[in-house]
Amino acid sequence: MDLLHKLHDELRYHSLAALTEGIARDCADARAWLAGRPARI
């Protein structure tokens, strides 16, 4: 497995809700980054 893009350094979250929001944001950011890259087969 290769690391293609680092989203951010490690973060601490003050609550489970904040962690859940952070994960959702990371997923959206990763999908946006991948959408801008050529497909690798």
| Rg estimate, integer Å | 13 Å
**Residue fraction in strands:** under 5%
Runs with pLDDT <50, length 5+?
Answer: none
Mean pLDDT: 92
Query: What is the number of helices?
Result: 1
End-to-end separation in angstroms reads 14 Å
Name some characteristics of this structure.
single chain; 41 residues; 1 helix; 49% helix; mainly alpha
In brief:
With 41 residues, the protein is mostly helical. 49% of the residues lie in helices and 0% in strands.
What can you see in these coordinates?
The protein has 41 residues and is mostly helical. The protein is built from 1 helix and no strands. The protein starts with 15 loop residues before the first helix and ends in a 6-residue tail after the last helix.
Ordered list of secondary-structure elements with their pairings:
Layout: H1 16-35
